[in-house]
Amino acid sequence: MADYRAPLKDMQFAIRELAGLDRLRALPGLEDATDDLAEAILEQASALATGVIAPTNAVGDEQGTRVENGEVVVPAAFADAYRQYVDGGWAGVTAPPEHGGQGLPFLLGVAVEEMWCAANLAWSLCPLLTEGAVRAIEAHASPELKDRYLPKMVAGEWTGTMNLTEPQAGSDLAAIRTTAEPEGDHYRISGQKIYITWGDHGMTPNVIHLVLARLPGAPEGVRGISLFLVPKFLLDADGSPGERNGVRPVSVEHKLGIHGSPTCVMAFERAVGWLVGQPNAGLAAMFTMMNHARLGVGLEGVAIAERAYQQARAYARDRVQGTVPGHPGRAAIIKHADVRRMLFTMKAYIEAMRANAYVTAAGLDLAQRHPDAAERARHQARVDLMTPVVKGWSTEMGQVLTSLGVQVHGGMGYVEETGAAQHFRDARITTIYEGTTGIQANDLVGRKILRDRGAALAALVTDLRATEAELAPHAELATIRTAHADGCAAVEAAARWLAAHAGDSPATPGAASYHMLMLLGIVTGGWQLARSAVVAVRRLAEGATDADFYRAKILTAAFYAEQVIPQATAHLRALEAGADTLSALPDEQF
């Protein structure tokens, strides 16, 4: 089983050359986000991820979690790693300084988060959800709630959860039945929630639940949902945890993967809670947390694929099997053409996925901090467009790439002791978390493309075409330029088809949405690799000392252009097929 090593050079390249850390330094409040600071943060995070968190990955998979005496028990190694995470100040890297955070760019937070996810995906879900809960409370809660809860949550001393799903209400949140009865200055929350990630544990003295529930007389459907803050322990006058609240874990789910993450059934029995935001506006408030989580889950697809790639690469270098034409004697399997194809596929996709996630995170910094309102709006539109792509495409490819990692191992990949199978199992949840791929795709087409008549997508195409022009002067990048132009043309054709045919039938947008999402993922990922190649040519011309690194960037972009970009045309053709055949088969024939 290979040890995880954070790919710092690739991460720094994406941060500086693609996401543009220098642009962020010009924003109010981010003046201190220098290259030196970024490098120091990444190196320190890498030490924690590789030396402390990563060794707990297999432990969590083997030990799992359980409920004892009304409490969830997690592996002891998880708690030790979490204490070191909190002691190092990592919980508040991007949180607002007014609540004790460091206020660093989302871009750097995303890079650090990738390391936690790759080191131990099950463990990393706890800080991920806490950070999302902090965002929701900071954006929507009263000043009193912020003062009482945010400092401890920002510090990581208390953790946070998101309580949406109920037995009868999965993605259909309109069916939520949990109730909230007014009582003085608070509410009494009653109901049951399921699939609550890190819903309970003993790593911190308190767990702060954000819970969707209905007020008496609330409108039917999603317009009647409110958001409440419900702590595991009520606070004493001095702000410390005191009396146990009426919330408890009933059980933990037995899952395909992420065994170390307690996925809880939670019972709320007249639990004391406080309203977050306005009555009946809970879904909008919760989406502050959910949209943050969607970017985070997309990053999980990148991270678990990176972990699987490192494992497969190490095995391929060590495993000697068979002979290869042109090489004397028996060869390591990394010499075999098909193994090279699989490893190169993993490498190329991971770099493309990482770049998409990092560039989108930088866009979020620009959307929140740029001094010009029009620029803030422009960057927010791009973030909104790319969020379902980062989440949906990256996690879909995470399935493919972790599966390739098993395949590189051959039969040994199917044996748990190698660790390859765990990555495959752990990755499977990511396409379901925070809205399935289908939900992301419907959001992309319905809300992000059709609703604004394709304006945000047209702006993206303009940027894609600008990179085509940057490729043109470099003859050595001709293959990349041709493929990039083909990808741009596919996006434009898909946009035209949607504009012309979305109204053909009610099923048409839904039938096209998955293919639009995958097409955009492929093309924007290729766009980032094309940009990487342009940077690499420039750095080589300047006499870069690490010439092999930059040559690898060019070759990776070329491989993606040859082997991946052609799939964009296939998705375009499937999209253009419309909904007729999909809708024609009677239900009973499935």
General description of the model:
- This protein has 590 residues and is of the alpha+beta class.
- Among the domains are: 8-154, Butyryl-Coa Dehydrogenase, subunit A, domain 1, CATH 1.10.540.10; 159-286, Butyryl-CoA Dehydrogenase, subunit A, domain 2 (Beta Barrel), CATH 2.40.110; 449-583.
- Helix content is 57%, strand content 13%.
- It contains 19 helices and 13 strands.
- The strands form four sheets. Strands 3, 4, 5, 6, 7, 10 and 11 form a seven-stranded mixed β-sheet that branches. The protein has a two-stranded antiparallel sheet with strand order 1-2.
- Helix 3 runs parallel beside helix 6, helix 14 (455-471) runs antiparallel to helix 15 and helix 16 runs antiparallel to helix 18 (566-576).
- It is globular and about 75 Å long.
- 52% of the residues are buried.
- The mean pLDDT is 96.
Looking at CATH, the homologous superfamily of the domain at 8-154 is Acyl-CoA dehydrogenase/oxidase, N-terminal domain
What distance lies between the first and last C-alpha atoms, to the nearest angstrom? 42 Å
Helices, by number, come to 19
Instruction: Report the mean per-residue pLDDT as an integer.
Output: 96
Please name the CATH architecture of the domain at 8-154.
Orthogonal Bundle
CATH first level of the domain at 8-154: which class?
A: Mainly Alpha
Gyration radius, to the nearest Å? 24 Å
Helical content stands at 55-70%
Global outline: globular
Q: Total strand count, please?
A: 13
* Strand percent estimate: 5-15%
Query: Which sheet architecture does the biggest sheet show?
Result: 7 strands, mixed
Unreliable runs: none
